[in-house]
Amino acid sequence: MREGGVLRVTRLGRLSRSVLHLITLGADPCQHGIGLHVIEQGIDTSTMEGRAMFGMLADPQRELIVANTNDGLVSARARGRAALWRP
């Protein structure tokens, strides 16, 4: 896609398979001047309202991923497993 273009999808689930992938995909086009328009959810990142809506969907999911990861690391340590990565 070129700068100024708009990627249109019917719904967010058609764009990616995971929330992390969705957040990455949503942020990357915006950094390159490409808009994201999700028809069913009414999200259009070429507008301030659309970027806010996308951010509201993405931020809680990102926090949930971080919390689940940290819980998993604590659980692994309790079982005597060493983590390769530590926050």
Overall body shape = elongated
Q: Structural class of the secondary elements? A: mainly alpha
| Separation, N- and C-terminal Cα atoms | 35 Å
Sequence of secondary-structure elements: EHEEH
What can be said about the biggest beta sheet?
3 strands, mixed
Number of strands: 3
Strand content: 5-15%
Low-confidence spans: pLDDT under 50, at least 5 residues? none
Q: Kindly provide the radius of gyration, computed on alpha-carbon positions and rounded to a whole number of angstroms.
A: 17 Å
Report on this model:
This protein has helices spanning 19-31, 48-78, and strands at residues 6-9, 35-38, 43-44. By secondary structure, the protein is mainly alpha-helical. Strands 1-2-3 form a three-stranded mixed sheet, with helices on one face. α1 crosses α2. The N and C termini lie far apart (35 Å). The model has no long low-confidence stretch (mean pLDDT 75).
